[in-house]
Amino acid sequence: MDEIETPAEPTVWRLRGSSAKGTLDCIATDWWGLVIAHNVHGELSTVLSAAVNDGRRLPDLLAEYPEVMVDPVLDDLSHEPLSPVPTAVTPGQVRRSVLALDPFSTGLWQVETISGSRHILDLAGGGYRRISDVSYGGMDEDWYGIESIHEWPAVNATFTVQLFPKDLPQEGEDVDEVTLRALFDEAPFLTTAFVTRIVQITYDEADSGGVDLPPLDGVDVLAATPPRNAWLLMASDDSPIDVSDMNQYGALWTSPKHVERGDLALMYYIDPHKAVLYAARVESPPTYADPDAEDARAKWPHQWWSWLSAFVALDPVPHTKLMEYFGGQLVMRGKGGRYVPPWVVTQLLLDQPSEPTKDLVLQVPSGNPELPDVGQALTLAAWKELAAGAFRFEADVEHYVVEPLLNWLVNGMDPRRWTSKAPLGSLVPDYSIFIGDVLAAVVEVKLGIRGIRQGNSWVGPDLDQVRKYCTAGGVPGLLVDSNRILLFDAGDPVPVAVFERSRLTPLQLSMIRGHVFPDERKVDSSD
Length: 527
Fold this sequence. Notes:
By secondary structure, the protein is of the alpha+beta class. The chain has 4 domains: 12-72, no CATH class; 87-219, no CATH class; 226-361, ph1033 like fold (Roll); 380-520, Alpha-Beta Complex (tt1808, chain A). Strand 26 and strand 27 (484-488) form a beta hairpin. The longest helix is centred in the C-terminal third of the chain and has 17 residues, at 394-410. The chain is globular and about 75 Å long.
């Protein structure tokens, strides 16, 4: 850890006089004083929220509001949600394992992903190192400074970290802005695979490459967090389910195009059963072609597939009971599946005998199925909570996801504006963003993106489409579906960033705005 210089300053500040037992009335900064989060209520809340959105530094804020006094938090607040799956170290001892980290977290953590990589985070000193399952550009094992964490680690989600350049100029070294910007443009910006475990480690363990821990059961990982959506997926006796085998190897199943990892799948068996016989969790985002079948795209051009695991047998739920849960309206048609609102899962859960594994898998979804009126103003929090399953058509994604996002990006700053279906030569993007009459960016919208992630790149027809728009206009672009926002530069085959809607932060929103309006990008050489 001595190979890089990172500040070892506090990043959590408690308002003087507040309770020392929790995170109430605290402000979180990055390692250079930028205010990134707070949980303060009352009049000061508005000031702090504006500081987060505007990218202000805590010292400047305190100078402007001298009545606000803070003390550094040097002890571990230990507020992170504990994982329901304990991590054993030695008999009789358990290592602290949590479901998520956030700006109020401190200390040293090992974050493991489904790829087998370890990511070591030093949240006191702003340091990062990766011990990868495969070699990646020679960056493994080295310590890097963290510029910012765009998505904080959470089990069953990815996390994204912006690192400092390895050859950052030393203090007092004269570097022009163009050179400095080029350095930062080349700095690693990493989005990980899905997180499976987050454990606290010691300095010695961090310096030695982390700690070897017992493997986790896949059911425990997928069921560690509640689903955001639930779905009825179709099955038949031609697709027999062996719970043990499928939980070991997974099962590829036809699915809706906008399922998410961790979603609840209820397996509805057609004749002669006409009943839900199993529940499972979605293990992978959907792909629009069966990767194991030759000519899958030609055979099933409109079919989507997802890997499922964490299967459990249910007491059969007949079609008549399902209709009762749905309020008398339930049409079972097609292969793709049907969205199941949270109240249906609640009723089903109440009617099932309690069993430990079943109770883990069969949880009530957290996504909000109630869509607001079209045009109704949404807060960022309410927008993030909208259940993807409640979107039936691409137009729903346009109205409830994209148009609020565009309003936040334009932010009422004339002459910035957006419009739909503006011609771009012979092409017609779904949305275009302008500065006056000058095209600034293009936006393409899908219910679910027809694409497959391969490392940091994405391939597929929808990706090709937005790249074509970017090239034609010579501008950056956004590809948005029910769950994700992909940022592209003109002529670049690799997304600049991929953000999950359900976890979008004000910092990420600012990054998207800077992507669309490059004049808002700032390079600060003062540090």
